[in-house]
Write a structure and sequence with these properties.
This protein is mainly alpha-helical and 138 residues long. The chain contains six helices and five strands.
Length: 138
């Protein structure tokens, strides 16, 4: 930064506040964590793509019991730590809230949305994004 002194000459001045501003800008450039909605979507996608839809295709029926789900979930989570179990639990509940999965009132049975049944019968791979688009369109 240039400043004029008493004699009318310009000289360079080292301003410490500018270096602090630069360091604070650099520290703000760190990667951010995902927001609440993005992480919920990620958890739903994780559960749908790795546990629920493969289980539906494996059983070849549009519903599954909680025991069948637990077996598939435990097989998936065995290679991961405790952190994965909480993500899977949150993702499963979130799939129910979104309407992809429906819980039977009388039994411990979960079924998929009725619009997804033709894809199950044809044994087609249905990604989470495609499934959510199918049930949300009228």
């Amino acid at each position: 930064m240039l400043r004029e002194d008493k004699d009318g000459r310009y000289k360079h001045i080292n301003n410490n506040s500018s270096s602090k501003d630069e360091s604070s800008i650099k520290s703000k450039g760190k990667s951010r964590e995902k927001g609440k909605y993005a992480s919920s979507t990620e958890n739903r996608r994780l559960v749908w793509n790795n546990i629920v839809w493969p289980l539906i295709l494996e059983l070849n029926k549009p519903w599954f019991t909680i025991e069948e789900y637990h077996a598939k979930r435990d097989a998936f989570c065995s290679s991961y730590g405790d952190e994965m179990k909480s993500k899977v639990a949150g993702g499963f509940v979130s799939l129910i809230v979104k309407g992809l999965l429906l819980k039977d009132k009388d039994r411990e049975v979960y079924s998929i949305h009725w619009k997804l049944v033709p894809y199950m019968r044809k044994r087609l791979w249905l990604d989470y994004g495609e499934a959510i688009r199918l049930i949300s369109t009228k």
